Amino acid sequence: MIRRLALLLLLAGPAAAQLPGLDATQARRPAAVAEAPWSSLVRVQSEAGGRCTGVLIAPDRVLTAAHCLVARLTGQLVQPGRVHVLAGYDRGEFRAHATATALRLGPGFDPATKGPVGADWAVLQLERNLPGPVLPLAALPAPGTAAMLGGWQQDRAHALLADTACRIEAAPRDAEGRRLLRHSCAGTRGVSGAPLLVRQGAGWAVAGLAATAHRTAAGGMAVAVQGLALLE
To answer: What is the mean predicted confidence (pLDDT) over 145-160?
Structure first.
């Protein structure tokens, strides 16, 4: 069933500044939200004004960026019941909606600083299952691995845009030893929390979670999912 989005858009307010960078390339193209792997992506928005992207890692669990759950005005985490997840969102319509019932953040994430990058992940427990295939988690990809990144972004907030021809560049660690993925994928504000996708067999899997982007060019940093206790 397709539902119209009205009240939730009013509650969400203007597009949130989730990523520090604004992509200046032409690498992103419209992606079909009804087709795999994009049908596993969801739009995450809070009543405090944040809008980001997430991915289904279980029918009732969504992986997204922790900084997407920080209220812009207070600098504090939003309450779970004020976080809404929309499946199949496209130009104001969506297939299904669920509210979060619990939030689990990356250990060490500080809402006041919205970091560090290596801890910038969150799992949302939902009140109900959402449709759309669940994506598996990938092992750490090697540099040069082909990748894709897509989400609902600042310049076209109501349509899914994706860079389908980018790569993993390196897998550095942060100061606390947490693994990151540097990639060449284009993305703007709003793609935070989107899965960095790599091939796994005949399908796609989540290798990382978009956290930051360059200001004037394609590329950014993602949190590597390997070793994270996401499904506990």
So the answer is: 90
What does the DSSP 8-state code read for residue 11?
H
Nearest to 25 by CA among 229, 218, 228, 197: 218
182, amino acid identity: R
Q: How far from 197 is each of 41, 165, 175, 200, CA to CA, in Å?
A: 11, 11, 25, 9
Q: Which of 83, 94, 79, 111 is nearest to 41 (CA)?
A: 94
Scanning the structure block, which residue is given the tokens 């994009």? 38
Q: Do residues 118 and 71 make contact, with C-beta atoms less than 8 angstroms apart? A: no
- The single-letter code of the amino acid at 75 is G
Q: Which residues pair with 110 in a beta bridge?
A: 115
Structure tokens at 152: 């609902």
Least confident of 33-37, 152-156, 159-163: 152-156
- Structural domains in the chain, CATH included, are 3-17+32-126 (2.40.10.10), 146-224 (2.40.10.10)
**With b meaning 16 or more CB within 10 Å and e meaning fewer, what string describes 117-129?**
bbbbbbbbebeee
Rounded Cα gap, residues 154 and 125, in angstroms: 26
Residues 206 and 200: their CA atoms lie apart, in Å, by: 9
**Quick one: tokens of 189?**
């504000």
Residue 142, both tokens: 């090697």
* Cα(164)–Cα(211) distance, integer angstroms: 18
Query: pLDDT by residue (tens digit) across 25-80?
Result: 578 899 999 999 999 999 999 998 888 999 999 999 999 999 999 998 899 999 99
